[in-house]
Design brief:
Layout (H helix, E strand, L loop, with lengths): L1 H5 L3 H14 L3 E7 L6 H25 L6 H4 L1 H21 L1 H8 L1 H18 L10 E7 L4 E6 L1 H4 L8 H12 L3 H18 L21 H5 L1
Parallel strand pairs: 1-2
Antiparallel strand pairs: 2-3
Helix pairs in contact: 2-10, 3-5, 3-6, 5-6, 9-10
Pfam families: TPM_phosphatase (PF04536)
Keywords: Membrane, Transmembrane, Transmembrane helix
Protein name: Membrane protein
């Protein structure tokens, strides 16, 4: 996913945003993040799940196993060691194995986390700070394969949330084809056409209020 961010063609995306904004009053802000959260909740759930499995195994073994050689397991230090090892392994797997992380977080919680991160980007990138409230956020969270399009009040008066479905689908296709630049460029072009059809008309004294470049916040932190 980091490679996909590194491969973004900044000039193509910037030019696409500029062309779309020449035709409408919309101010389009593309934002791409490697992920929307560190998912500490998944790590702790991984620790808890692994610990529960081990404790259950110890109890079942106590109940049904009458052989030799496992006496150490039932000693207090043996149980503590087993729990410690299991919890550590569970936490590490939950942190670094994304399918497991996703399972532990749950789809609904994942949607909530990505939406919250998109709202944060909306504020951080000052998408709200336009004269006629015509900012549009194209938010892409790569690890989660989630895309959100958020319009400010001036956009939402004329464009329904469902109207963005094709824009989202176009970015998703770009991610699936490992070509995020194409996906974003096509999505920006679709935004321009949609805004024109919906009557988000450009004013004679229109100014470029928000920079046209794609933002990649969190890229440096994700490298550490």
């Amino acid at each position: 996913m980091d490679t996909m961010i590194d491969g973004l063609d900044q000039d193509r995306i910037r030019d696409a945003v500029g062309r779309a904004e020449e035709r409408t009053a919309g101010e389009i802000v593309p934002v791409v993040v490697p992920r929307s959260d560190d998912y500490e909740v998944a790590v702790w759930r991984g620790v808890g799940a692994a610990t529960l499995v081990v404790l259950t195994g110890v109890l079942l073994t106590l109940q049904f196993y009458d052989g030799w050689g496992l006496g150490w397991l039932f000693a207090p230090w043996g149980v503590a060691l087993s729990v410690l090892v299991a919890g550590t392994v569970g936490g590490v797997l939950a942190r670094y194995v994304y399918p497991l992380q996703r399972l532990l977080v749950g789809s609904d919680r994942l949607d909530e986390i990505v939406h919250r991160r998109a709202m944060q980007a909306f504020v951080e990138e000052e998408v709200f700070d336009t004269r006629e409230r015509t900012g549009i956020l194209l938010f892409v969270s790569l690890r989660e394969h989630r895309i959100e399009v958020l319009g400010d009040a001036g956009i939402n008066r004329q464009v329904e949330p469902d109207d963005w479905a094709n824009v989202v689908a176009r970015i998703q296709r770009g991610i699936q084809n490992n070509n995020l630049t194409d996906g974003l460029v096509e999505a920006v072009e679709m935004c321009g056409g949609l805004l024109e059809r919906k009557g988000v008309d450009i004013r004679p004294d229109d100014e470029n209020e928000l920079t046209d470049s794609v933002r990649t916040p969190g890229r440096e932190a994700d490298d550490e």
